[in-house]
Amino acid sequence: MKKSKPKSAIHSGSNLLKAMEVFEAVAESGQMTAAARMLGLTQSAASQHIAALERAYGVTLIDRSVRPSRLTQAGTLLHRHAARILNVVGDLEMEMRQQGPTPISVLRLGILASIATTLTPGLVALAKKGFGVRDVTLHAGQSGDHETLLRTKRADLAITSNPFYDMEGLERHAVLQESFLLVVPSAYRGPTDSLEAVQRRLPLIRFADSTSVGRQVTQHLRRLRINPQQVIQADRSSMVTACVCNGMGFTLLTPTLLIDGFVERMPLRVLPLPAARLTRTITVVSRERELGSFPAQVAKLSRQKLVEQIARHMEKTGSDALNLEPGLA
């Protein structure tokens, strides 16, 4: 009797789904490196998943002989089927999770790091007392982290500065729109009527280019044809404000990005931006129709808590630069 050939390990359910998830990320991004970064994997690990799929089905999925690489005919076929399979599995996971003792039994939230401390107690109370959630997992980070969490379905909802309009199947609820402000050391006595004058006296301290805020500020200054000679970069608002309050430079931040500095009572002068207005919007983003009225309630609570916190601290600093508006999702 002819022995049947043993199946590849890829055919175990979890391995197959993970490999398909990696393949989809590669197919959508067009790059192994970008896909690996999106999924929180090393490039080597992502390549191994693709190779395992190719061995399992005895086909070549990606034509690596050209640059940039592209899907083969078999890869295109798998891309079509894998997208449908992963969507079905995602729907199943969502429906099964809702079969717990309450409509939302387990909740995973991504929150902007700068507002996480302010919002966490209220959000946990809303989830548990208002919606009967049993387990809550919170992730603080930047909008790039939230994109990865949402794409890999490791978060159900994110309070973020990027509405991710390029991602399908999401619902969005506006929290607020806020203007960027000029922030200088409290001891600074130079001119503040133009950014050109300030940057001639102080280095610019801003969010790193790896963050959406950093890129937004850089693009804004480029539009204004301002090219600061000295720049200090950091990826957390508390690091930026700590440098400013120690007289190391000036920065452009929004009220919510100043919360940590306010709480730490850092000596800062907060002024309206003496240039064309620059704003950012904070939005609650969640997968469509999964959480009922919860996302809308999160947006409402978040706006209330943030406005209260910022107004209180701005009043203490004597600043009238507060400018918050309902966001437009």
Summarize the structure.
With 329 residues, the chain is of the alpha/beta class. It has three domains: 88 residues, Arc Repressor Mutant, subunit A (Orthogonal Bundle); 123 residues, Periplasmic binding protein-like II (D-Maltodextrin-Binding Protein, domain 2), CATH 3.40.190; 101 residues, Periplasmic binding protein-like II (D-Maltodextrin-Binding Protein, domain 2).
Please characterize this protein's 3D structure:
This protein is an alpha/beta fold and 329 residues long. The protein folds into three domains: 9-96, Arc Repressor Mutant, subunit A, CATH 1.10.10.10; 99-176 and 281-325, 3-Layer(aba) Sandwich (D-Maltodextrin-Binding Protein, domain 2); 179-279, Periplasmic binding protein-like II (D-Maltodextrin-Binding Protein, domain 2), CATH 3.40.190. The protein has helices spanning 13-29, 32-39, 43-57, 73-97, 113-131, 143-151, 195-199, 212-223, 237-245, 259-263, 294-317, and strands spanning 62-63, 70-71, 106-112, 135-141, 157-160, 170-179, 181-185, 204-207, 231-234, 251-253, 268-272, 279-287, 324-325. Strands 4-3-5-12-6-13 form a six-stranded mixed β-sheet, with helices on both faces. It has a three-stranded antiparallel β-sheet with strand order 10-7-11, covered by helices on one side. It has a two-stranded antiparallel ribbon with strand order 1-2. The model is unreliable at 1-9 (pLDDT under 50).
